[in-house]
Design goal:
alpha+beta, globular, 6 helices, 37% helix, six-stranded antiparallel β-sheet, Beta-Lactamase, 6 strands
Length: 209
């Protein structure tokens, strides 16, 4: 028998961020990461987002990381994973209804959220393997409107702290810049990018050699 779905507030654990010790910062690694992102700004907006996801993974010592952007089609809103890194990198271009995504709660509250075992509320996340232990999400806005999130995931013992939240917050400024450039793309452009990505994967979801 399936376990009952818990209320959203039962999986949100922002208070834990305030109690946890903060690991020693690595300013040199942060400077290198930000410089690599600045260089990426000269390229494609999708490339910038991927660079952000890669750096979120490294700087937060996460197992997975990504960027979700809010979209609307046929009067319905959903989040699309425009960049993914780490364990769940093959889930690039995944879409989730706004109301069924942790990102939706982040935009509703307009603030970063730490969720522990979010699959206890969001049933889709229960399909992600290995299971999600924690997810830390930070929203970003463009011209005063919240449009997406930068997130990091732990699939094991890693526990996020206040510095991880700060680091994701730093990355959101670059995500907003990339979003403004992506806004010029048509829905058909997005579909084509998704199709091209799937064509580069083998049937088991791994990149072709």
């Amino acid at each position: 028998m399936d376990a009952p779905v818990l209320p959203l507030d039962a999986v949100i654990a922002n208070d834990a961020l305030e109690r946890r010790p903060v690991r020693a910062a690595d300013p040199a690694a942060e400077i290198r990461a930000l410089e690599s992102i600045r260089i990426a700004l000269a390229g494609s907006p999708r490339g910038i987002l991927q660079k952000l996801a890669d750096n979120a993974l490294a700087l937060c010592a996460a197992d997975s990381a990504g960027i979700s952007l809010l979209e609307e089609a046929e009067g319905k809103r959903h989040f699309r994973w425009y960049a993914t890194a780490g364990v769940i990198r093959e889930l690039l271009w995944t879409t989730l209804p706004r109301e069924a995504s942790p990102c939706g709660a982040v935009l509703d509250r307009g603030a970063p959220l730490l969720m522990i075992a979010p699959q206890r509320h969001y049933t889709f996340i229960g399909q992600v393997k290995p299971p999600v232990s924690e997810v830390l999400l930070v929203p970003f806005s463009v011209r005063g409107s919240l449009v997406g999130t930068v997130w990091a995931v732990s699939h094991g013992a890693k526990q996020f702290d206040r510095d991880d939240r700060r680091m994701l917050g730093v990355l959101t400024a670059f995500a907003a810049a990339a979003y403004e450039r992506l806004a010029s793309m048509s829905p058909q452009d997005v579909i084509e990018l998704s199709r091209m990505h799937r064509g580069m994967l083998t049937p088991d979801g791994k990149p072709q050699e």
